[in-house]
Structures are given as structure tokens and as C-alpha cells.
């Protein structure tokens, strides 16, 4: 279903039989809503984000490509989140053995202007799908279509904003004991000391070689988000806390309490593609009552 958001921006709404739903804006190819069968919003989107007409949308799942953060000369987090994507009305079929029925494919094409900033031709296909149990699955396929034999390299992240009841009541499992870079402390490499990750101040870390499954446990809501990733070795964890939030135009002062970014990414080792080569990066999210989550 194609429709328009409050600012007139076009979006696609996906609905699954049990009542789960998701929305994707063509602006940024950005998922801005994922609701469970009770209609609860599972992603955080700033109330200031979508009403404005231009600039990146704060919340949902911005796509950081071809550059994560300021790790390069491009605009922060790359241009993909600030371009209008196209809908592919005739997408390649799903694999035969899948239980997925609801999906949409978006394509990012560069303008001649963009080619001056990033002189590489590529095909970027983002498939947003809802699984039969309401899982949200994002699959990015990026192919080098340069005709002059040149490879290119990029960094990438699914900058996922989870909606949480109260950040002080949230714990992440799966990242303890990993090495990380701390954006707040410069270029040094640190190692987590073994405890589950909890929040009591600003956090902005890139965990390296994170496992394929990470759990985000919201004690107050008694809800656990399970994040599965493939092709994306790193995981960024970000919460701006109170002081930083106040400096951020798009966030209300108290928003930091209700959001947590956990972002499957490829940052430490950029992906390099030769002409004709394709890379695939997949993220699968599910939200389950914490009593169902056994940690397995
Ligand atoms: O992923 C974490 C981060 O890189 C932070 O450093 C923080 O600035 C955030 O992304 C949001 O960036 P944005 O450009 O959307 O305000």
C-alpha cells in the first residue's frame, strides 16, 4: 500500500495477517514504523522528525551508506538517508522456501550530481519484509556496476532506533567481553569487562566482531528485542543521554530516555567490491515477551 506521511512524503505500508505492520519512507529508504499485533510502536521516531520537509529523519532505521559517521569525506552517515529512493514495482521473487509474504523493494539510484561526490556506479536494492510472526527483515544488496574496472569500498550501518520504556531499565546481552572503539574517547581500542551492557550516561561505541545475535532486554516493558545479523560484523550502540540530546535539533529533551540505537554495521573493515561483485547485509528483528526469551 502506497500512501503519504504528514509532510507529504511518500511511504509504503506493509501489513501482515496477524496485525503486525511496518512503514518505509521513499525518502532515505527509511523504515519509520514497526508495530506489533497490539498496535504498539517498536521503533523510536522523534516527534520532530517527520514533520520537517528536508534533512535526515531521526528515528526508525536510517541507512548509513556509503559511509558510517564521519569515517570519510562524505556527509555524516553518507548520502543514502538523504536521497529519494524508488520503488521496484517488479521485484525479483522471494526464495521458494520462505514463509515471508509481505515485502517491498526499494532502489537507490545516483544522480549525475551525486557521481561528482562519489564517483562509483552501483545498484542498491533494499528489501523490507515482515515475517509470518511479525519479524522485520531488512536485506541490502549492493552491486558494483562500474564499467571502467574500478573497485569501490564503503562502510554501512542499519542505524536502528529501538523504542524502550526507560533507558535505565534496559540491558543488552551479546556484547560483553567484546573489543570496541569509543567515539567519546578517540581512537583507542577497549575491551568490555564481561557484564551485560546497561546505561547510566552517554554511550557511543562501535563493538567489533559482534555475534550474529544480540538481545535488548526492556525490564519495565518485559519485552526483549532479538536482533539477528548477517554480513555485518560490527554493532554500534548509541544513546545521547541528557546533555547531548539538548544539543540535537531533532530530539526533544526527554527523548533519550525512550530510545536506544543498536546498529548492525560494517565499519572497522570497509567492504570492497570489484565490478560485478555483490554484497549482502541482513538484519532481522523480533520482539518477544521477556518471559519467552531464554537467551538461546
Ligand atoms: O551511531 C551513532 C552516531 O554516529 C552518533 O555519534 C550520533 O551522532 C548518531 O549517530 C546520530 O547521528 P545523526 O547525524 O543522525 O544526528
Helix-strand layout with pairing:
Elements (H helix, E strand, L loop, with lengths): L1 E3 L5 E6 L5 E5 L4 E6 L27 E2 L21 E2 L14 E7 L3 H6 L4 E9 L5 E9 L7 E7 L2 E3 L6 E4 L5 E4 L6 E3 L5 E2 L4 E5 L5 E6 L4 E8 L3 E6 L1 H7 L11 E15 L4 E12 L7
Antiparallel strand pairs: 1-2, 2-3, 3-4, 5-10, 6-7, 7-8, 8-9, 9-21, 10-20, 11-20, 12-15, 12-17, 13-14, 13-16, 16-19, 17-18, 18-21, 19-20
The structure holds 6-O-phosphono-beta-D-tagatofuranose.
Helix content range of the residues, please?
under 10%
Identify low-pLDDT runs: none
Indicate the CATH architecture. Distorted Sandwich
Overall outline? globular
Mind telling me the C-alpha Rg?
Answer: 18 Å
Sheet with most strands: strand arrangement: 6-7-8-9-21-18-17-12-15
CATH secondary-structure class:
Mainly Beta
The computed structural class is mainly beta
The end-to-end distance, rounded to whole angstroms, is 36 Å
CATH fold descriptor: Beta-galactosidase, Chain A, domain 5
Write structural notes for this entry:
This protein has one domain: Beta-galactosidase, Chain A, domain 5 (Distorted Sandwich), CATH 2.70.98.10. Helices cover 4% and strands 42% of the residues. The site of 6-O-phosphono-beta-D-tagatofuranose (TA6) has 12 residues, from strand 19 and strand 20. Keywords: Isomerase. It catalyses: alpha-D-glucose 6-phosphate = beta-D-glucose 6-phosphate. This is glucose-6-phosphate 1-epimerase. Belongs to the glucose-6-phosphate 1-epimerase family.
Amino acid at each position: 500500500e502506497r500512501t503519504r506521511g504528514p509532510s507529504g512524503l511518500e511511504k509504503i505500508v506493509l501489513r501482515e495477517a496477524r496485525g503486525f505492520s511496518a512503514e518505509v519512507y521513499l525518502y532515505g529508504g527509511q523504515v519509520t514504523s514497526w508495530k506489533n499485533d497490539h498496535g504498539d510502536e517498536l521503533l523510536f521516531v522523534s516527534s520532530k522528525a517527520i514533520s520537517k520537509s528536508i534533512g535526515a529523519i531521526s528515528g526508525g532505521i536510517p541507512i548509513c551508506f556509503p559511509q558510517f559517521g564521519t569515517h570519510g569525506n562524505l556527509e555524516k552517515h553518507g548520502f543514502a538517508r538523504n536521497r529519494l529512493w524508488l520503488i521496484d514495482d517488479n521485484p525479483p521473487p522471494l526464495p521458494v522456501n520462505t514463509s515471508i509474504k509481505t515485502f517491498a523493494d526499494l532502489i537507490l539510484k545516483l544522480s549525475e550530481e551525486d557521481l561528482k561526490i562519489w564517483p562509483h556506479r552501483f545498484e542498491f536494492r533494499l528489501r523490507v519484509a515482515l515475517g509470518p510472526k511479525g519479524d522485520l527483515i531488512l536485506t541490502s544488496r549492493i552491486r558494483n556496476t562500474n564499467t571502467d574496472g574500478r573497485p569501490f569500498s564503503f562502510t554501512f550501518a542499519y542505524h536502528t532506533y529501538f523504542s524502550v520504556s526507560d533507558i535505565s531499565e534496559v540491558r543488552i546481552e551479546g556484547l560483553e567481553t567484546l573489543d570496541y572503539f569509543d567515539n567519546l574517547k578517540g581512537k583507542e581500542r577497549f575491551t568490555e569487562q564481561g557484564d551485560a551492557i546497561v546505561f547510566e550516561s552517554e554511550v557511543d561505541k562501535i563493538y567489533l566482531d559482534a555475534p550474529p545475535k544480540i538481545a535488548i532486554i526492556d525490564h519495565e516493558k518485559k519485552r526483549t528485542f532479538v536482533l539477528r545479523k548477517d554480513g555485518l560484523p560490527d554493532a554500534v550502540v548509541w544513546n545521547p543521554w541528557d546533555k547531548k540530546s539538548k544539543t540535537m535539533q531533532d530530539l526533544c529533551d526527554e527523548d533519550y530516555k525512550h530510545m536506544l540505537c543498536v546498529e548492525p554495521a560494517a565499519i572497522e573493515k570497509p567492504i570492497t567490491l570489484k565490478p560485478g561483485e555483490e554484497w549482502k547485509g541482513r538484519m532481522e528483528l523480533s520482539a518477544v515477551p521477556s518471559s519467552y526469551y531464554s537467551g538461546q
